[in-house]
Specification:
seven-stranded antiparallel β-sheet; 212 residues; disordered N terminus
Length: 212
């Protein structure tokens, strides 16, 4: 049974053992502070989609893996490591309306996630470098303009040979795009739940697609 299936049992059955499994599996995922000067807040995408500089719910989760645990082929070519965690993104919604987007696992596995790639009618790749991919979320990518609810993900993977590790990061930034907001878009409970989902997302993506 996979990590996601096990985690879903928490909701379905309230299993204490499964809750322990989830927190044990994600114990190495670390949330670190994001400074006001973080590059995501300076990006042209943030300024375009959050024109009123509304308050954000944001976080940065980090997972470090020893290089000898990484699949060797992912270390041979720049950019391969950064695309691997994307493959946890499968969500099935509105498929009939968007058959040209990425939906099937086989397509997710082979895609290079270049700029403009649309995924499950919920994600759009905005920028891609060797170490970082920026993705817009929060609504269908068919909604091109400023949105009532919007967000950016940045998925990073950096090889640090001097430390003998690969460092994976998942950065999230959510905000109200339209109008002026006085409060952050997520309250304490939703913020906590989002962090658990972030850990699950990062951990499952790394374990399924990166670790040998």
């Amino acid at each position: 049974m996979g990590l996601i299936s096990r985690t879903l049992k928490v909701t379905a059955f309230g299993s204490v053992a499964t809750i322990g499994l989830f927190f044990g599996s994600t114990r190495n995922d670390e949330f670190v502070p994001m400074a006001a000067t973080d590059p995501i807040f300076q990006s042209p995408f943030y300024k375009k989609f959050n024109p009123n500089n509304n308050p954000t719910t944001h976080d940065l989760c980090v997972r470090r893996i020893p290089l000898d645990k990484i699949r060797p082929e992912l270390l041979e070519k720049k950019g391969k490591l950064a695309t691997s965690p994307q493959r946890a993104f499968l969500e099935r919604k509105y498929r009939a309306e968007t058959p040209d987007q990425l939906w099937d696992r086989k397509d997710l596995l082979k895609n290079e996630y270049n700029v403009g790639t649309l995924i499950t009618d919920h994600f759009e790749v905005l920028e891609k470098t060797d170490d970082l991919i920026t993705i817009r979320c929060g609504d269908t990518p068919r909604h091109r303009d400023v949105r009532p609810a919007d967000g950016l993900f940045q998925i990073g993977a950096v090889v640090k040979p001097e430390q003998g590790i690969a460092e994976f990061t998942l950065k999230s930034c959510f905000f109200q795009g339209e109008g002026k907001a006085d409060a952050v878009p997520m309250g304490p409970w939703m913020d906590w739940a989002h962090k658990q989902y972030t850990k699950l997302w990062l951990e499952s993506g790394v374990l399924k697609n990166v670790v040998r």
